[in-house]
Amino acid sequence: MTKPDSHKLGTLEIGRFIAASVVVFTHVPWLMQRFAADPRKLLFGGWLPPAPIAVQYFFVLSGFVMLVAHREDFGKPGASLRFWWRRACRIYPMYWLALGMLVYYYYPLARPFTWVQLVTLLPGNFNEWVGPAWSLRYEIAFYLMFGLCLLPRVGKPILAAWMVVVFWICRPDFLRKPLDPGLPHAVKHLIFPDGARFFSGEEILFFGGLLCGWLYLRYPLGRRAAWALLGFGLVWVAACMPLLHGGYDYVKGPWEPVIAAGYGSVILALANLERGGALRTGRLAVLMGQISYPLYILHMVFVGLLLTWFHGRLHFGLAGQYAGLGAGIGLVYVLCTGAALLIDQPLQRWLRRRTKKPQAIGPGLATPP
């Protein structure tokens, strides 16, 4: 495989930040509407950015980043444990920070298993304290399965079997009966549990990202081809909007590959354009990428706390709502930037310095770092 540049792709970091911002601009006006003196007077006439577009982009980007970042780890002993450890260090600290800020308000409602599913982000269908955490449960499922795909000897067959099962589950309706093997109820319950995250249509978006990562490594594109692919991807995504009800819904089942093709084309084109020097980014792009995850996972917590503290005390007219919206969004970005630069990034550096290569304890096994 052709090795790409080692530095992060700034265009994708910017894309990650924009996607997180779309989610912010969807949720914050909706929450600020609670302070309206007249509920009939809606901010922007009731229009909100389509957050599902951003979340589905995240799922495709996740597959691309994982394959490109871990292209040399397939089949290496200990690679799975290292991968799981690094992903846990990346995703849990900010989520636990968000969760901790809500404990005071929610703990009377929690039962023992509630704490287990909240702290671990178990893949499944649960009530969330941190609103965006539902999508993290898909990410955890991606991490668990992709880590298995890195195992020596059995990793690639696991990846192939995972894909076959997912595409079989998400097959079109006209193929359901002809391709139904009549599995026992226990097996169906294992594959189709309520709120399953391991064998859902979202995995197809992740697979689309994996395919784009493989193409990026294997077949570099020239500038003209990359620009053409970018134009194609943007047009394709726009053409898919009716399937997504204008971007406000999540397409399911057999339509997932169609959506993945559009997002994947955009990601693959931008990555090739940056690699070829047609697009250049700097430190600002890196900073935007560092802020994106704290912004995504913390913004609803900050706004929700403000809503809790001032609920019933503030009532705004439409002009006051716009002013409050601007102040609220500004405060969210300041707080999330502070969390990224003062907590998340120092913690990530501290964890990386103390992460040691696992020591083998047997054939194909290793101790966690």
What do you see in this structure?
By secondary structure, the protein is mostly helical. The protein has one domain. Helices cover 64% and strands 1% of the residues. The protein contains 13 helices and 2 strands. It has helices at 10-32, 51-69, 79-100, 103-106, 112-120, 133-149, 155-169, 185-191, 202-218, 223-239, 256-275, 283-310, 318-354; strands spanning 360-362, 365-366. A hairpin with a 2-residue loop joins strand 1 (360-362) and strand 2. Helix 1 (10-32) packs across helix 13.
What does the oligomeric state look like here?
Answer: single chain
**What level of helicity do the residues show?**
55-70%
The backbone outline, from C-alpha atoms, is globular
Instruction: Give the biggest sheet.
Output: 2 strands, antiparallel
**What portion of residues belong to β-strands?**
under 5%
Distance between the termini: 28 Å
Number of beta-strand segments = 2
Radius of gyration, whole Å? 22 Å
H and E order = HHHHHHHHHHHHHEE
Which ranges are low-confidence, i.e. pLDDT below 50, for 5 or more consecutive residues? 1-6, 357-369
Arithmetic mean pLDDT: 85
Tally of distinct domains: 1
Structural class: mainly alpha
Trace the largest sheet across and list its strands. 1-2
Count of helical regions:
13
Structural features:
two-stranded antiparallel sheet; disordered C terminus; mainly alpha; single chain; 13 helices; disordered N terminus; globular; 369 residues
